[in-house]
Amino acid sequence: MTPNLIQQSAQIIHQANTLTILTGAGVSKESGVPTFRDALEGLWAQYDPQELATPQAFTSNPKLVWDWYEWRRKLASEVAPNAGHIALAELESIKDDVHIITQNVDDLHEQAGSQNVIHLHGNIATHKCFDNCRGIPTLIDITTLTYNKDATPPKCPYCGSNIRPNVVWFGENLPQYELNTAIEYSQNCDVMLVVGTSGMVSPASELPRIAKQHGAKIIEVNPDISTITHYADIKLEGASGEILPKVIEALHEN
Ligand code: APR
User: Fold this and answer.
1) pTM of whole model > 0.85?
2) In degrees rounded to 5, what are phi and psi of residue 21?
3) Which residues line ligand 1 (CB under 6 A)?
């Protein structure tokens, strides 16, 4: 990573009126949340997350999928934002028009102080009725329910269906308002900063291309190659917790 690329990125961000940030699992990795495509350890090592994160998996084995999400929910509740989240939150205080679109179901951006965050794939800390019996989404606060933890998942108090995590699974539609807003922010930004996503899951993976087609500069932060890398204007190769604070430092010098 040449300091020059950091300087150039800071310069581009400095000149932008509107900045949209797309984040993925990589930004939370340094907080201790495994990415979706990391090999898992311990109890869950034998499972492929992509096979558990589907409505079909939940229908055929609700307890397995519930327990897997409870494990992830607990993990997410125990970790703290890292230097990458904090640097992204700082961007909001440096520039006026900054929006984060995240594929992550944790709330580490908010914990770091970011205010304008759109969650495309839901929120692992909340739950809903599998059948959304009272409208999309029918959110249910499971802390108000009495249920047998060995016979999970708990049941919807309105219709008796299983309760599920309030996240978007493979094959499901994204929440309409969030998706529309994300497209709007992608179409209207001068710069899109793409951090820690493999770009393998659509429609989130299409947002940088939409931004590019509308004239935005794309700056990518990722230690590896993603589906975005080949059309990024600048690729900052490395961990977001290391790279992003350097970009902020360079911005302060601008
Ligand atoms: N800093 C930045 N990027 C990192 C870091 C790091 N420290 N460590 C890993 N990465 C990168 C990886 O190189 C990879 O490109 O983060 C990316 C993580 O990719 P995925 O696990 O595919 O995560 P993501 O792109 O967010 O997945 C999208 O797929 O499984 C679904 O709904 C799930 O939201 C998720 C979506």
Assistant:
1) yes
2) -120, 125
3) 24-27, 29-30, 35-37, 53, 103, 121, 196-198, 200-201, 221-224, 226, 239-240
Give dist(CA 25, CA 183) in Å, integer: 20
Substitution site in 108, 193, 201 for ligand 1 pocket (most atoms within 8 Å of beta carbon): 201
- Is 79 in contact with 104 (CB distance < 8 Å)? no
- Torsion, Cα 214 216 221 223, to 10 degrees, reads 50
DSSP annotation of 248 = H
Residue 92, token pair as written in the block: 């909001």
Task: Please give the structure tokens belonging to residue 138.
Answer: 């029918």
Per-residue pLDDT tens digits for 181-214: 999 999 999 999 999 999 999 999 999 999 999 9
Write the residue with the smallest CA distance to atom 29 of ligand 1.
201
